[in-house]
Amino acid sequence: MIGVDKTGDMRGRGSRGEPIASISRSTGVSEPTVRKHLRMEDLSPSRPGRRIAESELLEPYEATIDAWLLDDCRNWRRQRHTATRAFVRLRDEKGYGGSYSTVQRYVRRRREGMAEEGDARDAQGYLRLSWLPGECQVDFGEADLGVRGVVTRGRYLTVSLPHPGVGPAQVFWGETSECVRQGLRNALEFVGGVPARAASDNAAGVGGRVCGEVGPSEMLRRLSAHYCLGHTLTNPYSGNEKGNVEAKVGYHRRSLFVPVPQMHDAEAFNERLLRDSPDMSAEKRHHGLGVPELGLFEEGRAALAELPPAGYQCVRWETRRRSRQGVLALGGTHRCSAGPACAGKEVAVAVGAFRVRVVDEGTGEVVAEHEREWGSVPTDSSDPALRPRPLCMRPTGWRDSVVRQSLPREPVEFLDGEGGADLGRDLRVLRDASAQHGWEAAVRGMGAALRATGGVGGASVELSAAVAASGGTRAEYGEEPDPGEYDRAVGLAGGGGGHAAPGA
Fold it and tell me: Cα–Cα distances in Å, from 501 out to 350, 436, 490?
């Protein structure tokens, strides 16, 4: 750095007409630097340059935070970004290197005037409760969930172990006894043992009122007997009696469901929640003991009893009589079918948290399985794979059939152009292919046959469906058929036993 004295010397020499090259040799300063100092017009003291404030580090991310907060206005008020969640997302997703306190001040400032006034809480004191290792608390929370592109208000069951502060969450669409049982089973298998006691409030399927007295439901008593799990029902509207799980429910909502998660299958999403559960406690410290939660969790496992050899069946059994069409209604609005073969018969129905199984009471065979529907909007989960057989007997019902509604556009347009014997013949092709290779493979095989041959002959549909069922792709795009691939699909390669294509 050139001092002010040397600067003055160079400027004095220049004012007396000394050449720049001479000034450079005399002062030992490069010629460009000499020229720069000679061009200076004002050497007055300047205002000291200020340090870059940390808040300026946040400026490139302010628009992102604003977008999150604006998007939160369309979300449920209990499922919005906190300052902590905003900081974590900025750090992990955007590479923000500033401090949490800067984000916290900005979020608070942006929310001024937007925050709703909460109800004033009573200033009453509560008794501080102590929970021993091997005890758990259970409660439901609510969160918006994106399911196949549609945002739905769902429920999630949190099973918290207060001593280590660890607890997994499981997503459901209701708070029925089946959901409670499935959530508890998943949580107990995740922690690898059975707590000595579980505390929950009088939620649906957990508690009930008999002759004015509140007590555990039949479901809870049976599940407790299976796992040798003690249970306690807390007083209604007394969240302080199970404050750990109340706090954990809020933590799960802010951490797991902000932003609104997108999923296709809730059961697969629940498996992921269990796998990720230890990571949520890996860096957290217990709020009271100040030690890592995950370490306490590993120590607390010694206080858990062993799981029973058999897993608990988390279903509710009902006996129903089918209609003449083989259809029954669940919850009054949701229709499901096991096909006309069960028409008029009594069947046993196993209602689970996510699936409904229909069992023939005589043989014990599962004749149909459907995804469980929720809500008050009527639904019909009749399986199109069960419908081709009666449709072949009455092809005139094609236009209004479930089968037609379930097929892609190309096969529908082709079959719409047929009538009488031709339509009945091609429906029998679909029937035989779906019985042999499954509904999805039969539909893909019919589409491939149409693209390759312009028709749905029995042999071409059978072979294309066999390839689709075996994971082949040639039939999907109408490429030149490979006989070897077809042979492998139908079990002819290597001397395996084959079968004749139906309708060939």
Answer: 36, 10, 9
Query: How far, CA to CA in Å, does 27 sit from each of 32, 127, 235?
Result: 13, 81, 89
pLDDT surpasses 60 at 211: no
* 282: phi then psi, degrees, rounded to nearest 5: -65, -40
Residue 318 pairs in a beta bridge with 349
Give the position of tokens 């309708």. 503
Using the predicted structure, report yes or no on whether residue 129 has a pLDDT greater than 60.
no
Of the listed ranges 61-65, 123-127, 367-371, 453-457, the one predicted with least confidence: 123-127
Question: How far are the Cα atoms of 136, 250, 384, 476 from residue 196, in angstroms, in the given order?
Answer: 8, 25, 47, 56
Residue with tokens 């102590």: 130
Decide which of 133 and 190 is more confident. Answer: 190
Beta bridge mates, 156: 141, 171
Within 10 angstroms of residue 195's Cβ, the number of other Cβ atoms is: 25
Q: How far is CA 64 from CA 57, 78, 274, in A?
A: 13, 20, 30
Buried b (16+ CB within 10 A) or exposed e, 246-272: bbbbebbbbebbbbbbebeebeebbee
Q: Which of 77-86, 122-131, 297-306 has the lowest mean pLDDT?
A: 122-131
For 371, residues 6+ apart whose C-beta sits below 8 A from its C-beta are: 354, 355, 356, 381
pLDDT at residue 486 in the model: 46
CA dist., res. 180 & res. 353, Å (int): 9
Distance CA 155, CA 143 (A): 6
Averaged confidence pLDDT in the chain: 75
b (16+ CB within 10 A) / e for 335-360: bbbbbbebbeeebebbbbbbebbbbb
> Which amino acid, 283?
E
Tokens found for residue 257: 């469901």
Q: What does the alpha-carbon distance between residue 207 and residue 181 come to, in Å, rounded to a whole number?
A: 13
Q: Which helix (H) or strand (E) holds 191?
A: helix 177-191
The pLDDT of 309-317, averaged and rounded, is 85
Alpha-carbon dihedral sign for residues 438, 444, 448, 453: positive
Q: Tell me the C-alpha distance between 422 and 458, whole Å.
A: 12
Higher pLDDT: 272 or 400? It is 272
pLDDT higher than 50, residue 87: yes
Q: How far is CA 226 from CA 182, 189, 190, 351, in A?
A: 14, 14, 17, 19
Burial class (CB in 10 A: 0-12, 13-18, 19+), 446: buried
* Neighbour-count burial of 113, counting CB atoms closer than 10 A to its CB (0-12 exposed, 13-18 middle, 19+ buried): exposed
Which tokens hold the place of 253?
């909502």
* Residues in contact with 375: Cβ distance below 8 Å, sequence separation at least 6, in sequence order: none
Q: Is residue 252 predicted with pLDDT exceeding 80?
A: yes
